[in-house]
TrEMBL record, chains A, B:
<dbReference type="GO" id="GO:0033942">
    <property type="term" value="F:4-alpha-D-(1-&gt;4)-alpha-D-glucanotrehalose trehalohydrolase activity"/>
</dbReference>
<comment type="pathway">
    <text>Glycan biosynthesis; trehalose biosynthesis.</text>
</comment>
<keyword id="KW-0119">Carbohydrate metabolism</keyword>
<feature type="active site" description="Proton donor">
    <location>
        <position position="296"/>
    </location>
</feature>
<dbReference type="InterPro" id="IPR014756">
    <property type="entry name" value="Ig_E-set"/>
</dbReference>
<dbReference type="InterPro" id="IPR013783">
    <property type="entry name" value="Ig-like_fold"/>
</dbReference>
<feature type="binding site">
    <location>
        <begin position="321"/>
        <end position="325"/>
    </location>
    <ligand>
        <name>substrate</name>
    </ligand>
</feature>
<dbReference type="Pfam" id="PF00128">
    <property type="entry name" value="Alpha-amylase"/>
</dbReference>
<keyword id="KW-0326">Glycosidase</keyword>
<dbReference type="InterPro" id="IPR012768">
    <property type="entry name" value="Trehalose_TreZ"/>
</dbReference>
<dbReference type="GO" id="GO:0005992">
    <property type="term" value="P:trehalose biosynthetic process"/>
</dbReference>
<feature type="active site" description="Nucleophile">
    <location>
        <position position="259"/>
    </location>
</feature>
<feature type="site" description="Transition state stabilizer">
    <location>
        <position position="390"/>
    </location>
</feature>
<dbReference type="InterPro" id="IPR006047">
    <property type="entry name" value="GH13_cat_dom"/>
</dbReference>
<feature type="binding site">
    <location>
        <begin position="389"/>
        <end position="394"/>
    </location>
    <ligand>
        <name>substrate</name>
    </ligand>
</feature>
<feature type="binding site">
    <location>
        <begin position="257"/>
        <end position="262"/>
    </location>
    <ligand>
        <name>substrate</name>
    </ligand>
</feature>
<comment type="similarity">
    <text>Belongs to the glycosyl hydrolase 13 family.</text>
</comment>
């Protein structure tokens, strides 16, 4: 069931809203001219009215049982924010120029995650467009946009959105977003959107006035859970599925990143993610273009990405946070919170060989067993990163990896990411070691809520033994501090790092043993004490070996290679990359001992 | 990890209890001679002490942090009930006589559910033994015993048990139960136990003093959920898995009926039921005898019985409540509560063809979509009934089907059950149309709890528009009223019904088309208005057709048969079964119109 104000052309519009337990619902037209449109309810609780003389840009909301006035839960636009009337949008007025666009084949994806508000000083969709050639040059091919569903105020990561169909007004609204997606496609970049189906934000959250969007059966870290399996769940499921189709259809997105699916509770006989995957697949076939779903998941559960005939949800890919945590702990030596579960080369070796470190192993931080085996799935069904908005921004001071470790270790982490068999995700600015932090910021209007956020974050950080006061999330300075210093990417070490990333991406796309990732096709060995991992990977027509030295000291490593002549392709310790100067030979023709500088990555390819 | 007081012989005993958050735990020996045994804790929170001079039958409890005294959560026996000390049990003193026993092949199971307290006037395990020859004669081959885990007082269905390892004292304790299982095996009957892993009862429930057995993440109809996926869940999972192994091992059970698995919440990467199924399979191989798990499930989810390589839990069978509800509504015309979802022949035809009526259809009573397709699983992976303790006992007046419908309809329901491709379950007394109700009864000692139960049940029945006062659950009269009038089975209509059941079971076991149930191998047609269902089933070497007339009037039905000579095998309308006298031919050699009496079942087999 299509929801919201569906503009039909010729000043005709159909309004549909789901409110199964209400006795009377009407559309109140607010502007250009006030009037009330009574609605009719069907058996499943959908209220409808089809009306002439509705111009695009009409402002409206719903009058519930003659009393409350509420914006449309499926509003396409909230020009004045979360508490004010919704606006009718005529999507046909935008003329798309991306007819020739074809999606990038999924295994080739290299994702660049960005936050609209802080990627540019302007903080708008349109301002991003000028930077696309730079991202193209870097070599990434998919942009992942952090959530744009209307949130309170002008500053938010996006996870406090309360109108899942409405494009944030302060970012430039529907037209701005369309221009950005269109520009990406014209320049050969895919674009995916981060969507949040596990909760709604705390301010401007009026959906419960309409119907049972939430259930008391489950308690999530963010309060009551979205109702995906309880009485009336059909309406909530429809709301979510139509939302996904809406973004993919009206905004031409190439896929969606599903936020925190571990907080989507559904014990019914058809999991909402399976139903969503089915619906997107049907839509993809109708549209004749491939569309993909990626789940952010803390479950380490292969079920998410297994095809439905194997009892899975049939989602194309999910995160492997284990990859991040392995790399992070090895280059920072941090061991607090969930990092206590990591820190061993053996774990990273296991991740590189089969996807997860925790495959029903006991997790000390969770105090329970965690994860299962995903090594039979193609490795490109896992998305990995060494930084993202959460891993950076949920630190009290928003430190990026470049603030926490040495330049050599940064390059090593980048090589571990980009030579991996998984789909890599870069967090904006990571590619040049951005100096700005990425902090947590909000712009709520409710003082109690602001206070609650402040206290909540402080308590959270105290649990992690962080000292001092967290930056004020509600301050505009906190937001501004998080904006990228884009020009710095061409300067000094930033430039070297950027070029190192570009070269890694180029090699990743050139060498078949790195490109072909239907299976792992790898042999991995490690020395825990020496902190060295050796990865041998092959395809039908190529072979590579790369060494990752996570040791802060020089290490001699006896490299065993298959016969043949092996050429060095990249070596992070070379002075070209501002390394200490390499002692590694340009070519190898037999097994031999290599002297590796601290935090070195080196790649050899069989000639 | 083995739990409880593990008697090692020679007056030596090892005590193990899981209490991961406590700082001090000791065993307090209460009798024969008081003393305190300090325990030591391992990394996972298991406290242990191994002690000499512990005679079997020693009474003990745990002293928690020098203060609280609590019975053992894994107590093997609570001689004085739920609030008093636990007793050490030496399981080796019982001499088993069932060495020659082999389990019944699973597809052949015909289950007889009984409640120990009301099956005989004595209400004990041993009193059941005298009745086993009668059950053998009837033809059932598996006895399902309602829960025997120690509950408060002497009267309870068993679902308020609080010591999952302890055999109810008032039923005869460990030795009584062993004698019963042993006797069953010697007489060729399998025995399964109903075990409750989704909650513990409200009185005598001290496990939370030991550790986080419950989680706040989920809210079940019975309160907080058992902790299967939260921090420390490993200890609770071990408690449950060891419990299953304990019953199968120490008490020689042939399988377990898992109560209400829809209230087992586990969103981790390995579902507790999958882990349980794996553990039971391993134990089964060690024991060299097949062991089976059956899930009571309200989910209609094939995942429960799918093998693990198809993403399932790997449980051998689950309930299809849809079968019950279809038959019940067709023979009673009831339409209140969940019965509003049923009442159509089309639904029963669908169940007979593929297992569930609700396969992601909209359920009016649930106000959501429900179930999925299970038709690719062998039909013997579903257990069905026309009566059970819940469907009878959760009615305000505990009416059995024999109180609600005609004798003809009773026979029709029995034929629908016993000619079905599923595993049938009979509820004690059903086979002869027992006159006694099966009421809800308790024997709590806490007056507030008794009051809460009274008020809760009253409110529940008011929701179902039942009039009048429910019988007093706490009264011994309510319990006594529910005891079977066993001698009546040999009298009048009771005897006819009993013989009809016996004949149906005999036919079910004789005719290959009814026996072989790896696939459905059936064609089913129905006439909704006439309320007739025709079922054609075949095996490699036999064919049957049976007609089920749910119409309260005579109906002419044009039966289409494959060529051949078809012999009538059973006809419920014959005067032999106290029917109205049959108008159905003894043999058929061509398609023809048949005149079916009201509520008739007739079976033809191809000669």
């Amino acid at each position: 069931m299509k929801l919201g104000a569906n503009y039909l052309g010729n000043n005709e519009c159909e309004f549909t809203v789901w409110a199964p337990l209400l006795k009377e619902v009407a559309v109140e037209i607010v502007a250009p001219e006030k009037r009330l449109l009574p609605m009719e309810k069907d058996d499943l609780g959908y209220w409808k009215v089809r009306e002439k003389n509705i111009t695009p840009d009409t402002l409206y909301w719903y009058q519930l049982e003659g009393e409350k006035k509420r914006p449309d839960p499926a509003s396409h636009f909230q020009p004045k924010g979360v508490h004010d009337p919704s606006q009718v949008i005529d999507h046909s007025t935008y003329t798309w120029q991306d007819q020739d666009w074809k999606n990038i084949p999924f295994p080739d994806w290299i994702i660049y995650e960005l936050h609209v508000g802080t990627f540019t000083p302007e903080g708008t969709f349109e301002a991003i467009i000028a930077r696309l050639p730079d991202l193209k040059e870097l070599g990434v091919n998919v942009i992942e946009i952090m959530p744009v569903a209307q949130f309170p105020g002008a500053r938010n990561w996006g996870y406090d959105g309360v109108y899942p169909y409405a494009v944030q007004n302060s970012y430039g609204g529907p037209n701005g977003l369309k221009k950005l997606v269109d520009a990406c496609h014209q320049q050969g970049l895919a674009v995916i959107l981060d969507v949040v189906y596990n909760h709604l934000g705390p301010e401007g959250n009026y959906v419960s006035d309409f119907g049972p969007y939430f259930t008391l059966t489950y308690n999530t870290p963010w309060g009551t859970a979205v109702n995906f399996d309880d009485a009336h769940s059909y309406g909530v499921r429809n709301f979510v599925i139509e939302n996904a189709i809406y973004w993919l259809g009206e905004y031409h997105f190439d896929g969606l990143r599903l936020d925190a699916i571990h907080a989507i509770y559904d014990l019914g006989a058809k999991h909402i993610l399976a139903e969503l995957a089915e619906a997107v697949e049907v839509f993809s076939q109708q549209q004749e273009r491939p569309l993909y779903l990626i789940a952010e998941s803390d479950l380490n559960d292969v079920k998410v990405i297994n095809p439905q005939e194997l009892g899975g949800h049939g989602i194309q890919a999910q995160w492997s946070d284990d990859f991040h945590h392995c790399v992070h702990t090895l280059v920072t030596q941090e061991s607090i919170g969930y990092y206590q579960d990591f820190g061993q080369c053996q774990q990273l070796a296991k991740v590189l060989q089969e996807g997860f470190a925790y495959t029903w192993n006991y997790s000390p931080s969770r105090r329970r067993y965690h994860g299962n085996y995903a090594g039979d799935r193609p490795p490109y069904q896992l998305v990995v990163c060494i930084q993202n908005h959460d891993q950076v921004g949920n630190r009290m001071l928003g430190e990026r990896l470049s603030h926490l470790t040495s330049f050599d270790a940064l390059k090593l982490a980048a090589a571990t990411l980009l030579l991996s068999p998984f789909i890599p995700l870069l967090f904006m600015g990571e590619e040049y070691g951005e100096d700005a932090p990425f902090l947590y910021f909000i712009d709520h209007s409710d003082p109690n809520l602001i206070k609650a956020v402040r206290e909540g974050r402080k308590a959270e950080f105290e649990e992690f033994h962080a000292e001092g006061e967290p930056p004020d999330a509600d301050s505009i300075e906190t937001f501004k501090k998080s904006t990228l210093n884009w020009q710095s990417r061409k300067e000094g070490k930033h430039k070297v790092l950027w070029e190192f990333y570009r070269e890694l991406i180029r090699l990743r796309q050139e060498i078949p043993a790195l490109t072909q990732r239907e299976q792992y096709n790898s042999k991995i060995s490690f020395l825990e004490d020496e902190k060295i991992i050796s990865v041998y990977r092959w395809s039908a027509d190529s072979e590579v070996i790369y060494l990752l030295n996570f040791n802060g000291k020089e290490v001699d490593y006896s490299l065993v290679i298959p016969s043949g002549n092996w050429q060095k392709r990249i070596d992070s310790s070379e002075s070209q990359w501002q390394g200490s100067g390499s002692k590694l030979p340009q070519s190898l023709s037999q097994s031999q001992s290599l002297n590796l500088s601290p935090y070195t990555a080196v790649l050899y390819q069989k000639a």
